[in-house]
């Protein structure tokens, strides 16, 4: 295979607090901001607290999920006094880190998240075959052994991609769990720090002209979303993740495997046909 | 020791959603309310969704922590249009389940909570030497083996007790963790169900005239609260629970044991003198 040559990643944004109650990224960005903006060898690192009002209230968002506001349509919505805070903030962030799809955009936007799911460290990319994302993924996977490292590709077009990471020329979200929202666990924070350090290490190697070997990586994608069983009138959930499935994220789900346990004690099984890898949130 | 004779517990209240994002109790109360109020042999069970607005928003509280609003002083505060929602609601609940300290009060108020701490199943009582609470505790401890069962006594006077359980003639909070706030785990829900069933089983035995043997139980109490290290200006935390202490709730903390790990990597140790049993939230 012919070698692929790509431009350097001179400007990298590290974002936390896109969801205000996912605190590893909030802590990491605060710590980084104490050190001021960093211009280390070969790369300028800009740190951003994405949703400061939600961080202040320790909530996912104030009016609208910020990490669903970066589609081309929402970014070009005219703003009035009644525009939800997060749409205004998304447009500010797009001006700061983008504009999306332009030459002025950050070379890489890395957005830090937590999940209550037993997800390990999961890199989330929007675009198909992004060499940068796949090499960063390989570098993290090779160097982190404490928890599983995976890549989830959403395969969305730039215009349709709604997450903050999609504003950059390249974009990566780093999702780590399990961690309850609203608190910080030292083990999860330390893994996130290591992930970010390894990403920056790879970028420095890349920017200094290192040639990386090709190879194969395993990539996950979203095949299907299954909602909880709900009461048809109140829409309250009527069942929880079955204890045999709980915490078994990314394990293969086969026809007949337990999915949910209803509050009255009945098991609902998977009847989807082909085996499916599961992720419970 | 002479036998102690106590009146029957004819009316029992089971409360959930006192903190709106602690969902095991919310689910259990909803399930129970689907069955309507239950008058089984020897006991009338009343179920209460304590803070419906906070449950609706999946938040701990709207304006003020409801479970700190049941002191004699707050319950007798005059209400105006600007009174926080939870103070109004505390007075409603006091009228429904109390009034606190009166003959009309529920014989037992049991309030259901979750914690992100690795606390196991913990009964929390306000009063010193409450025979009812201690016998229920012993019954649960004898019959639950999946997680540790403990009793925490707060030793507060009825007037000063600020939690909902203090409204009844006898009061017990059941706290189960670890569970992230805002979600339900099947294992935690199932343990809470079992705890409530065992409590009701003991009450039926007690009400039907069973004589229970005396004995000894281990009781925990609050000796000291240690706050996180904080930035003196912003009051943001600057450290997290040390990974060696994380999830080691109720283990003995000795002089020199690690307490916190700062974001910059320094360990802060326990310098309190006497060994202390720890609970991390």
UniProtKB/TrEMBL annotation, chains A, B:
Catalytic activity, as annotated: an N-acetyl-L-cysteine-S-conjugate + H2O = an S-substituted L-cysteine + acetate; an N-acyl-aromatic L-alpha-amino acid + H2O = an aromatic L-alpha-amino acid + a carboxylate
GO molecular function, one term: aminoacylase activity
Chain ranges of the AstE/AspA barrel-sandwich hybrid domain: 216-272
Organism superkingdom: Eukaryota
Note describing how the cofactor binds: Binds 1 zinc ion per subunit.
Classification via InterPro entries: AspA/AstE_fam, Aspartoacylase, AstE_AspA_cat, Aste_AspA_hybrid_dom
The protein's name: N-acyl-aromatic-L-amino acid amidohydrolase
């Amino acid at each position: 295979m012919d070698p692929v040559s790509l431009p350097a990643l001179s400007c990298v944004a590290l974002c936390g607090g896109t969801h205000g109650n996912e605190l590893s990224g909030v802590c990491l960005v605060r710590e980084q901001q104490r050190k001021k903006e960093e211009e280390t060898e070969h790369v300028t690192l800009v740190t951003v607290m994405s949703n400061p009002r939600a961080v202040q209230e320790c909530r996912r968002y104030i009016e609208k999920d910020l990490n669903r506001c970066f589609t081309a349509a929402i970014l070009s919505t005219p703003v009035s006094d009644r525009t939800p805070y997060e749409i205004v903030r998304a447009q500010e962030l797009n001006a700061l880190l983008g504009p999306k799809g332009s030459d002025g955009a950050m070379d890489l936007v890395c957005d830090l998240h937590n999940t209550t799911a037993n997800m390990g460290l999961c890199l989330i990319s929007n675009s198909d075959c992004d060499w940068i994302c796949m090499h960063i993924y390989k570098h993290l996977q090779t160097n982190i052994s404490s928890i599983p490292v995976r890549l989830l590709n959403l395969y969305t077009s730039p215009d349709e991609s709604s997450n903050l990471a999609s504003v950059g020329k390249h974009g990566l979200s780093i999702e780590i769990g399990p961690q309850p929202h609203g608190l910080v666990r030292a083990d999860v924070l330390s893994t996130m720090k290591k992930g970010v350090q390894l990403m920056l290490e790879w970028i420095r190697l890349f920017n200094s002209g290192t040639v990386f070997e090709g190879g194969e990586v395993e990539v996950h994608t979203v095949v299907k979303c299954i909602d909880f069983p709900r009461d048809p009138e109140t829409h309250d959930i009527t069942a929880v993740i079955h204890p045999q499935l709980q915490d078994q994220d990314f394990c293969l789900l086969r026809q007949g495997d337990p999915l949910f346990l209803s509050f009255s004690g009945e098991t609902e099984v998977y009847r989807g046909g082909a085996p499916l890898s599961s992720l419970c949130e």
